[in-house]
Amino acid sequence: MFSDTIDFSRIEEEGYPLIRYHGMICGNRTAALVAANGTIDWACLPRFDSDPVFASLLDSRRGGHFSIRPADTSELKVYQNYKEMTNILHTEFIRNGKTILRLTDFIPASEYATINFPEIHRYVEAPETDIRVDVEFKPIFNYARTKPEIEKTTSGYIFKADSRSAAIVGDSPLYLKDDTVVGSFMLKRYASKWLILLMDVKNLAKITDYKSYERLEETSNYWRNWLSQCNYHGVYSQQVSRSALALKGLFYEPTGLMVAAPTSSLPEAIGGERNFDYRYAWVRDTAYVVEALSMIGLKKEATKFLYDMMESITKSNNQLHTIYTIDGSTSLKEKTIDFDGYMHSKPVRVGNKASGQLQIDEYGSIINAIYYLARIGGIVNSYLWNFVVDFLKTLEKLWKEPDSSIWEFRTEPRHYVYSKLICWAAFDRAVMMGKMLKMSGPFDAWREIANQIKKAILDNGVDPTGTYLTQYFGSDQVDGALLRLPFLGFLPASDPLVEGTIEKIEEDLMYDGFLFKRYLNDDGFRVPDNAFLLLSFWYVEDLVLLGKTRKAREAFESLLQRGNSLNLFSEEIDLKTGQMLGNFPQALSHIGVVRVATRLNEAYKQKLNASSVKSNY
Q: Could you tell me if 221 and 260 lie in one domain?
């Protein structure tokens, strides 16, 4: 039962719980991270992009936290797991094979997107023995720059600063020590208690008024009902279900947009500067999410997501921006926060400077998403088709320009081959989609532009030996993004240039364990990058498409080990230590899990069908 236990003493390094030792709880509007030591060390309420109320993950001293754990942590082991088919998290503290304390953490979720529950409910149980429990509650405001007023009530404490408040309600003894609410109480065997965080309240009621048991049941039903719409029952179904739940947990229901991750500034390299705020919606990710959700039968979800993103783009006068806030605006001015940073990795950023970059592949990605929706029978109405026509008018000129690439380089713009490749895909897909849907459009002109782009790539984006596609025109380096080359139909998967590109990426960018760097060139940062997990999943898809199913499965099994015990995945992997890095959990990595599992499942089905046909002759 406890095969994935963690020694309590190993959870933290340098005062920070390792990224891998976290679970995510989420509702319809936000998410929080719960470390295996019982500490909520990251939570933004009431929405993903709110200032964090707990942020000790980015500053262990000043960041704020909400911890519940046994008073005696000696010889403890910890086991985290989700309640089946939900995002309700259990953390069990184990000594001598017995669970001495169990936490159940959740953010209330409802099928009604208009209902807002800016709350975190924590259920504390002593299932096998009497146990003394320690509690600490320290919220922050304005990134710890504003000192709150603290009010004691009969039910708990309210911290107030500016126009905001954070409160704790409990049915156990709590008292104030400096700027922290603390508690230490004996929990008898079989006994249980609730502790609740409440945001932006003026008064506190009795703890029973917050209906924690009812909220728990509603939330459990919400996740189970949602997941039941998934029709995937093939290989790796457990991992696919968890990835689907993680992806759903990143959606902001009032607008239907999805954040890339619920965190900000978790570093891509310890001590490095690649610490970015991912609590926003990337247009590029829309295509990947639409495809992944569609692959497992969540067509309704995919359709709604795409149309919600289209509405955000329309509101900005069809001016495509790289990143959108979850309410569809484009105000993402980047600033730094005076925090220590995860394991002393500075700077800590809020906002994202990439919002002002030109990343041409975004245009192609959104059209590719619409094409994929059309292929699975989703609704592509005349308004959406007009959007495609208008976008291609813009792209007709834009594809010739240099840009900042899919990797958001903060160096000078260049003619990146991957950006051109996705532009080609946009015109190619538009022709196929228009004819499939019997829509009208300048198909001959689009095909001619696609041919022009293809010629430009083959004339300028191939290395001097004619062996592989390069990172940008005139470069001799390769780009991990070109692992998508076999998916796009630009050339047959068996074409020597495709095979040569994959082989060059293997040679220059692949490390042990099927891990890949994105690139080797200078990107304007002083500390080298690590392995970007999505590339590994793309590589496995390539192996499937190239008919190397056995190697694909070997690689996928290796990658699944890169997830934590909850089957959650980060953005990157440290090439030296194997530890998780980057914002967590990362949507792109979970999209990779879904895509690879469904690709492998389809390959196995085809192989079985071929064997069946052969046996009939």
A: no
Q: Is residue 551 part of a domain?
A: no
Q: Is the pTM of this model over 0.85?
A: yes
239 to each of 118, 314, 383, 564, 585, how far by Cα in Å? 29, 36, 37, 11, 14
Which domain range does residue 278 map to? 252-534
The first and second tokens of residue 445, run together, are 């002109």
| Residue 148, domain CATH | 2.70.98
Which of 511, 534, 557 is the C-terminal boundary of a domain? 534
**Residue 167 placed within a domain:** yes
Are residues 271 and 217 located together in one domain of the fold? no
The DSSP output letter for 10 is G
Give the helix/strand (H/E) hosting 453. helix 443-460
Same structural domain, 275 and 330: yes
Spatial neighbors of 408 by CB under 8 A, at least 6 apart, are: 322, 354, 357, 359
The 3-state DSSP class for residue 361 equals: helix
pLDDT in tens, 124-139: 999 999 999 999 999 9
pLDDT in tens, 236-284: 999 999 999 999 999 999 999 999 999 999 999 999 899 999 999 988 8
Q: Which residue has the higher pLDDT, 10 or 369?
A: 10
- Mean pLDDT over 509-521 rounds to 94
Nearest to 13 by CA among 35, 40, 44, 42: 35
